[in-house]
Amino acid sequence: LVFLDIPTPNAVAVPGGVVGVTRGLLNLVKSDEGLAMVLGHELGHHQSRHVLKSLGRSLLWISAISIFMEGYAVDSAQYLVQMFSASHSREQEYEADRIGFKLAKKQLGTADSYLEFFEKVHANYEEGESQWGDLFRSHPYTLDRIRRLKSMMKDVSSEDIR
């Protein structure tokens, strides 16, 4: 676990099992459940090997595009890679949310404030949703994540939490 002295609220899973947490996130999230959810989410990325899969997928796309484009239009190739990767990346985020929720619930026995981070991000930082924006977004819209997690909370029984 690494502290990042950055004002923007965020956490990140980095290859090698490292999780970085920003000062902004620690200032934003006040509950144990909210912080456990965020840390569990990042650990979920490691558990599912999302970081390595995304890196490998990006290298594959860059190689394929550069072969077909013969080295021209590097900027266009970067946008294409981002667009092709975004949808898959959003699915990884939903999976990490599910894992984070289950880990937090298992460790703390409660999930009363597990949405604290997402609710505060939506209230303070998220702008309007755009379908065109979906092409390049690596993360799902915060409201979609909140809806899915609320639904999951209703559906998850204690036997499902491992």
Annotation keywords:
globular, about 5% strand, 6 helices, mainly alpha, 3 strands, about 160 residues
Please, could you describe this protein's structure?
The protein contains 6 helices and 3 strands. The protein is mostly helical and 162 residues long. β2 (11-14) and β3 (18-22) form a beta hairpin. It is globular and about 55 Å long.
Shape: globular
Run of helices and strands: EEEHHHHHH
As a percent range, the share of strand residues is: 5-15%
Q: For the largest sheet, list the strands in their spatial order.
A: 1-3-2
Report the oligomer. Answer: single chain
Low-confidence stretches: none
Note the main sheet: 3 strands, mixed
Number of distinct beta strands: 3
How much is the radius of gyration in Å? 17 Å
Helical percent range?
Answer: 55-70%
SS-based structural class? mainly alpha
Mean pLDDT, all residues: 77
Q: Gap between N and C termini, in Å?
A: 22 Å
* Total of helices: 6
